[in-house]
Amino acid sequence: MRNIPDVVWIDEDGIIVRPAEPGWPGATAMPESMVRRPRPPSDPRPEETPEEQRARAERRAAAARQAENLQSGQERDAYPDAIRDWVEKGATSEFALTRDAVVARSQPRPLTMSEGAAHFELANHLWRAGRRDAAIAHFNACFRLQPDNWTYKRQAWSLVGVEQSGDAERGRFTQGPQTGREDEWPFESDFRSDVLKLEAGQYYPKTL
Asked: How confident is the model at residue 166, as a pLDDT?
């Protein structure tokens, strides 16, 4: 399980039919509190310098690339239909994989993955114990050992996002440095920067 949401199909006999992959129950939407609202007409945007205008244009372009990366890959609307087909047809469903196919699609488990998992568990324990600096060090270690594990990264980024914003609802989605407080961000990466390094379809790989 390397991202949110990852899904594993398991049949009545406890046999994995599809290993971890991106999957959704249907159409999704952002929480109401996270929806960006337009600026009221009575609150015009202050006049910007050319540098500020360029910076705003770059942020908009980055946000558009990020949205494209997050929406590409696995087909969200089709995924529930695949599950329904499997429920109806069982092992004869075109979406039910053979055991050999499940093994072939499963991620390898080198020693670095176990080491990364250990660092992640230590980091969470230390964070709960109030040992922030030690926790951050272990979070960064697990990122280096499992660079493709978005679950580890997003958990850590959300913890600091809540801490810095003081808002549990918005903070958990603020998975990067706040404007003007970049020096306070304790990690070697953040959500937007890492997503922008990907090609379309890499964040939620298409498996159906």
From this structure: 84
- Among the listed residues 204, 179, 166, 152, the one whose alpha carbon sits nearest the alpha carbon of residue 187: 152
Structural tokens at position 42? 């009575």
Largest CA distance in the chain: 65
Question: What does 47-80 look like in DSSP terms, one character per residue?
Answer: P--HHHHHHHHHHHHHHHHHHHHHHSSS-TTTHH
pLDDT tens, position by position, 118-162 = 999 999 999 999 999 999 999 999 999 999 999 999 999 999 999
Average pLDDT of the residues in 61-90: 90
The pTM (predicted TM-score) of the whole model is: 0.79
Q: E strands, the chain, where? A: 6-10, 16-22
Residues of the chain by 3-state class (helix, strand, coil), percent to 5: 50, 5, 45
Judged by phi (left if over 0) then psi (alpha if -120 to 50, else beta), residue 14 lies in left
Calculate helix-pair angle for 111-128, 132-145, nearest 10 degrees: 160
